[in-house]
């Protein structure tokens, strides 16, 4: 199972990397054609915008899995009781899970209700908006794993006497 998860993460990072490189190339070519050749590519702005949306959301899910999002850990770290710190972190993850669920739920609603096509590329907007529920689902799985981690940590601390 661990090997399968590692392969999935490696594939995820590869997709994210390819999309980011494609974004840079498309924007670079667009700038070059617009300012050096005095001609713009009609599809480049739209595709770069869609790639940017996907890279942003996929990157946010990846960063959440690595605990790389901005947090106020310095406040929680000042609490002396390990058990209290763990409870606060558990409650924080539960709140984050609720927010992720709401965003994913309404993102799904928006994605499935979109019936229009993008003007330049004729891509269904459902595909563009679909990144919200997709990454929401990935983040909910990660959130559940984090909640289970903090519950396990809390059980470990409850079994051991607290030191002051």
Overview of the structural elements:
This protein has 164 residues and is mostly helical. 77% of the residues lie in helices and 0% in strands. The protein has six helices and no strands. The protein has helices spanning 2-35, 44-65, 73-77, 82-113, 125-129, 131-159. Helix 2 (44-65) packs parallel to helix 6. The protein is elongated and about 70 Å long. It starts with a helix and ends in a 5-residue tail after the last helix.
Note the main attributes of this structure:
6 helices; mainly alpha; 164 residues
SSE arrangement:
Blueprint lengths: L1 H34 L8 H22 L7 H5 L4 H32 L11 H5 L1 H29 L5
Helix pairs in contact: 1-2, 2-6, 4-6
Describe what is shown at a glance:
It is built from six helices and no strands.
Distance between the termini: 39 Å
Along the chain, the helix and strand elements come as HHHHHH
Q: What's the shape?
A: elongated
Rounded average pLDDT: 92
What amount of the residues lies in strands?
Answer: under 5%
Q: Report the sheet with the most strands, covering strand number, pairing sense and barrel closure.
A: none
Rg for CA atoms:
21 Å
> How helical, in percent, are the residues?
over 70%
Structural class: mainly alpha
Put simply, the count of helices is 6
What low-confidence regions span 5 or more consecutive residues with pLDDT below 50? none
Number of DSSP E strands: 0
